[in-house]
Amino acid sequence: MDFFSTQRVFFRPTPVDDLKEAEVLAVSGDGLYSIKVNGKPRKAVPGDHLAPLFKLDEKVMYTEGGASKKPKQVPARITSVDVSIWPPSYVIKEDGAKTERDTEGGRIIAEVLSLAIAADEAMQTLLAAEEEERLAEEARREKATRDRAKKKEKDAIKDILKSAAAAAAAAAAAVPATAAPAAGKVAALGKAPPPGFEGTKPTHKPPMAPPPGFESLGFLGAGGSTGNWADDEDDSAKEARDATAKMDAKKRARIEQEALKATRASAEKLAKDKAKREAQKARKAVETMAREKREAEEAKVRAVEEEAERVVREAEANVEAERLETERVAADAKASEEEKQQLEKVRMAAAAAAERASVAEKQLQEKVEMESKATAAKARAVADKAAAAADDIALKEAANEVEREAVNKAAEEAAAVAATAAAEKTAVFAEKSAAALHRWEEKEAKRKRKEAEIDAKLAELGGDDDLRALTKPGGTRGAETEEEEE
After folding, report:
1. pLDDT single digits (tens) 322-373
2. Which of 98, 129, 160 is the endpoint of a domain?
3. What is the domain count for the chain?
4. Which element (helix H / strand E) includes 266?
5. Where is the composition biased (Basic and acidic residues) (predicted)?
């Protein structure tokens, strides 16, 4: 399975390690990859340790088809990821399809990466076409240059031949046909024919007419210098012109070829640099687009995760607040219920105590009124008896002593009753609230006011201290005891 630069992958160093997310940084020609795992680069990672990584709902391109079908990429979306196996498997849903299908990671590729690869392939195709066109254009230019050089060389040769032919024609036209030297003249010139060729005629070209002013120099025959320079000039000048023309033509051709090579090399370098810059620019644009899209997706995923975490935190905070509120309400309800029960108990106890006190007070008032009347009658009878026996001092003293004892006893009993009431008050109101105690104290004050009113009424009726003592708790009992003693 091949991986591409900037592709996201799963990384598993060994079969017992957990999967880690990574990103391919570079691809080596020997099947090894440079990756980045948790922000740290790793080099020379085999392809067997990597597997394609795709997120849920990520847009991908699915390669359908097989051996009998031409592969075709169709857009799809990731719906499920199974990382329990190696390599991980995916479930995708094609655009417009109603059903999902299982597939392996090698048959799908991220949409962004697919676009980048397509752009890269298109750029490479474009560069290859441009390179082919450039080479064809250079071949055409080189052929045209060679053709022009050959044409120039042919033209130069033609010009040289034309010049030589024109010069030869002019020389031939200037010398008459009878001007050929005789054998004797040739011999006189020291140019006798070789042995065996005495009867032959020389085959040299006819002498050329000398230029004006040089007629006395004679002419140069074919055998050597005879004073006529026309032949020398004709041969040497022609050879020199031919050699010079050839050298010039070769030099011009060489210069043109060097210039053509330099131009071609410069144009090729410029074209390569331009193609390289364009390819780098396109690659950077694709990588930037892929990076921006990946960063946007990662930002979107981070935003979703942060929103989910915020919602979870708010939900946990709400649950905790509800739990605390429930506990507080339960505690308040429990405390309120306990307080209500306690107040109800206090109220009931206070009501019972008040009821008992009211009944006792009413009974006491009735009894006091009845006994007050009886006591007053008895007291008057005793007073009458005492007055009748007033002469007897001992009887008076005894009566006074009895009265004092009765008063003291009544006081003691009143103190005992007060102590008992205080004890009852302490026992009844030991666990009661301050409000109930306050109400009880108000009732006690009211009772004391009534007792004071009773004392005032007894005073108006002429009752003494003994009579007033009889109206208090224990007083009746004391009076009865005193009467019994008497």
Report:
1. 888 888 888 777 777 777 777 777 677 767 766 776 777 677 677 767 766 7
2. 129
3. 2
4. helix 229-388
5. 237-316
